[in-house]
Amino acid sequence: MTLPPTLLSYLDPWLAFLAADPVLRSLQMAMIALGTLAVFLVFFATRDILLRTNSFPYMLFCILIVAVLPGVGFLLYLLIRPPRTAKERELEQLLRSMLADVSARKSQGKKPAKADA
User: Fold this and answer.
1) Residue-wise pLDDT tens for the chain (117 aa)?
2) SS3 per-residue string spanning the chain
3) Residue 114 domain flag
4) Could you give the number of structural domains in the chain?
5) Which residues form the domain of 73?
6) Is 98 a member of any domain?
7) How far apart are CA 102 and CA 117, in angstroms?
């Protein structure tokens, strides 16, 4: 497969970083792909742990374990992360308190208060 000369002239500075040997070029491309995957896993774990906890040491530990051991560390992170986000826990607590309020009103014989729209 040949590329048009205008495209080759544009890609020439970028291709200069790659080796001329096809085997070495394949290894370089594999290393670029693995590096990109490692960066993605660190960013994903960082975003996820920020949503799940407010504990800075726990956040730091999770981010470091994924950064130091990209593949295995990410799998370990999936095992030790909190099962729900902070918003989900707040919503569950609010729902439980509302249900407790409704059941308390029922036991007193009062009608439940209507929610404002």
Assistant:
1) 677 888 777 777 767 777 778 788 889 889 999 999 999 999 999 999 999 999 999 999 999 999 999 999 999 999 999 999 999 999 999 999 999 999 998 888 766 666 665
2) CCCCHHHHHHHHHHHCCCCCCHHHHHHHHHHHHHHHHHHHHHHHHHHHHHHHCCCHHHHHHHHHHHHHCHHHHHHHHHHHCCCCCHHHHHHHHHHHHHHHHHHHHHHHCCCCCCCCC
3) no
4) 1
5) 5-83
6) no
7) 18
